[in-house]
Design goal:
The protein has 16 helices and no strands. By secondary structure, it is mainly α. It is elongated.
């Protein structure tokens, strides 16, 4: 490995130095960061280096606003590899606001498998719902957010957190969502390992005000029950002791389907 190091060209060596100082920045080893940054990047105008400096200065409070990130982004084009990095660095320090959402969308279009971009997309849209930003656009924010959380479930292991956020939006806005049909298709095709994590969230929605939502829940549970009926024993026992008509109708329906 040491022999390979001596054979690296300038670009490979620069990448190594960038990774090294970025690691120091994440560790907040500021003394070592400053020493190595000044030593390795003297007279270097590479935008990747400029971005690392901007992040370190903002995170230490040396600069108080995000204008330096905006200047870096303006100097770049979508074809620059660092363009998406700069937008993500900018978004991670930006307050919840719809103003950044279109920029995050650009990153998703360029790098559709970038997990952090989908996180920013999901939480900025979700945050705009919570803040009541532009009341007339709340359904748009909700539709964007649920799209993001569904993508995060796909890109990561079946995360309980993302699944819960997805369910929360779906059950809150239901058929009002612009992508409701797509989300129905997505939810009814979830893996059994994902469904197992949200069984309580599903059962509580059996008396949802929307028939379309109730039917979606039934399809999910029925599909899961085909191979894992024993996992439904406790929730089925619970709803059998309730006085809710919708719960009783579901119980009769599921028992008839599995006679």
């Amino acid at each position: 490995h040491l022999r390979e190091l001596f054979q690296w060209n300038e670009e490979q060596l620069l990448n190594f130095h960038i990774d090294f100082v970025e690691y120091l920045r994440k560790l907040k080893e500021w003394e070592l960061f400053d020493q190595n940054f000044n030593r390795l990047f003297k007279n270097c105008n590479d935008e990747r280096v400029m971005l690392i400096m901007a992040k370190s200065q903002y995170d230490r409070g040396i600069i108080k606003n995000l204008s330096v990130f905006e200047e870096i982004i303006k100097r770049l084009t979508k074809n620059d590899g660092v363009y998406c990095d700069a937008i993500c660095a900018y978004a991670s320090r930006f307050p919840i606001s719809p103003d950044i959402i279109l920029k995050i969308k650009e990153v998703i279009e360029i790098q559709p498998a970038r997990v952090c971009a989908w996180k920013y997309w999901s939480y900025f849209n979700f945050g705009c719902i919570k803040k009541g930003e532009k009341q007339k656009n709340i359904i748009e924010f909700a539709s964007n957010a649920i799209q993001g959380f569904s993508k995060l479930v796909q890109l990561t292991s079946p995360s309980f957190h993302y699944l819960c956020q997805l369910c929360s939006i779906f059950f809150t806005y239901g058929p009002k969502l612009y992508n409701f049909k797509d989300m129905v298709k997505y939810l009814t095709s979830l893996s059994n390992s994902s469904i197992l994590q949200i069984i309580p969230q599903l059962f509580i929605q059996l008396n949802h005000s929307s028939e379309e939502v109730r039917e979606t829940v039934y399809i999910i549970i029925k599909k899961f029950a085909e191979k894992h009926f024993q996992a439904l024993t406790m929730p089925l026992c619970f709803i059998s002791n309730t006085n809710t008509k919708d719960f009783h109708n579901f119980l009769l329906k599921i028992m008839n389907d599995f006679k």
